[in-house]
């Protein structure tokens, strides 16, 4: 009996101790020292909404509890592992599963390793050339040669990619734009950087894998069973698609929610691009079939493909950030249709 009472008292005391520990507040300088960070870094994380203090005193001092300190340690660990700020925000908010984020980071590190290997190879070849004062000239010529070869290789891989996932009868001029929402051939210009060359290696590796090709071909074929080939020119359709992407990007930058009128209107305009009508509204049956197909085809390989393309074509990066908002908006609309 006494033992049970003592255990309850011990438990109560421990809970009180834990609460007391959680309630203790530390100044920003103390927190920076405890975590091996710096005051400007901790302040910056507050300014971008990644780590808010538990309290701001009347004197303007940021105060942190053990909970915020733990969160800061986690952020610092993820930054050490080279995760981006946006990725960390999404992970902490629960928008991206941790295992998926880790897989993405492994792929990014693989590309970085290939990039470093390529740079090391250039330096070693330059060293072995024993050109003396001409070494810099040799290095420049070597990089020019590698970049030119890579650009030609990129064109070849791109052609192989689109031809492998589309049926022969599907018009060639529509393939790239249906796959990526933009004619990426127009983005091929200048020399490829080392990171782009490494990404190209990974893209080639992907499309040399029969299983991956078959999976993506299945997704494309099933989508083509639903959508309609546009009646307008590729150029006009591309312009409308680009306008749609810019509008969604603006909405995302303004923190619009998936259910907001501006995002829902954007989604309707996007679906219209693939419908058999020239103006809104599209039929609910078509919207449902299109939305369900888009949501069901979001495979890991498709995400990997998009990430590689964002490295190869940097101008696509900002638009690819809107994917999450777009798919959330599709999901929300389907849920509303189910309630009707």
Automatic annotation (TrEMBL):
It comes from the Bacteria. The keyword Kinase does not apply. One of its GO terms (molecular function) is DNA-binding transcription factor activity. The keyword DNA-binding applies. Residues 25-94 form the HTH merR-type domain. Keywords: DNA-binding. PROSITE patterns: HTH_MERR_2 (PS50937). InterPro entries: DNA-bd_dom_put_sf (IPR009061), MerR-type_HTH_dom (IPR000551), MerR_fam (IPR047057). This is MerR family transcriptional regulator.
